[in-house]
Amino acid sequence: MAKKSTGFLDTQHRHPMHHPARGGRRSPTRGYAPSRHPRGSRHGSARSTSTRGTPSAKPAEVRDFFFARHNYLPEIDAAAGRLAAEAALPVGRMAEGIAGRLRDRHGIRIEEAERGTLRAFDAAARVLRLSPRISPGQRAFQLATQLALLELGDQIAALAAEGDFRSAEAERLARTGIANYFAGALLMPYAPFLAAAEAESYDIDLLARRFGVGFETVCHRLSMLQKPEARGVPFFFIRTDRAGNISKRQSASDFHFSRIGGTCPLWTIYEAFARPGQILTQIPEMPDGRRHLWIARTTTRGSGGYGAPAKTFALAMGCDLRHAGRLVYARGLDLRDPAAATPIGAGCKVCERPACPQRAFPPAGRPLAADPGVSRFAPYSGG
């Protein structure tokens, strides 16, 4: 059974934000840290020692694979662009053309999938089954993913093999992620998508309408625009549920999410659940003084009608404050005023802010303030 996805990989983990200091090599597990592979190396190992041997190790390896490449796969992006031009696929209306290519070149017919299945390919019967309950944009995405597996199978396998994964399962997850990357790049070809993003000041809703995809799919694509000669804003993208389980995290910059401690409750992504469907903005400041612009919004989707369970997530996109002026979401915000920033941290267990009233755990590396005669507004402060 295929799993519903509108981006390159769906996984579930708790990870706080972490922004390492400038000037080091990019490590998939600890942000900037010594590494045997140069920053952005296409041949860096995807192995994650912090999760070795656990059920979460496989998706963690795949996330590290993409992170080490700054979430940009030039050969896959280029292949998608060539195919879009060769097939003359119209932007925003590609599903019919992709389905025609699957039929004419690969002899594949498309049928309705059984309930609970998003996409299933029967290679022997040459039948691709798709859920009838998905949106036109999701349908186009799934068609494009299947096209990638058929036409770029060897190239995808070779690229995944560079990850030096610890198991066949992790390598298969990587191949799926690369195929999904291709799908996003096909539906939103690099040059026209970047031009539209700049022209619309990165307005995600407007881009979604123009390219015929969903809000979340646009967020994914925006985090991939890192071609050296034509870079977009280097975004970080995250998806979480109400319990703080982070199921997607991508970064085109050196901002990373560390692997311990939880996330900060003062971060606007959690406020989004209280205001569903609205786009919220925030200028958070990390303990090291770095500030970013974040936007957050909820998304809800389900596969059935009335009474059927649905999934609700909060999505957040962020960038370094020096890029914020290029975004429509910065309008009306005083980007220069330090008082406009919200102090947040990387999760209570690792946060260095001892006087935070929202603190849930004692700050790491500090003496525990435990005086029966004193009670403070900020838990564990003082001492």
UniProtKB/TrEMBL annotation:
**Domain of life per record:** Bacteria
Question: For the region Disordered, what residue ranges are annotated?
Answer: 1-58
Q: Where is the composition biased (Basic residues)?
A: 14-28, 36-45
Quote any Pfam family the record assigns.
ScfRs
- Note the InterPro entries from the entry: IrrE_HExxH, ScfR_C
Locate the IrrE N-terminal-like domain: which residues? 104-223
* Domain called Short-chain fatty acyl coenzyme A regulators C-terminal: residue spans: 225-380
Q: What is this protein called?
A: ImmA/IrrE family metallo-endopeptidase
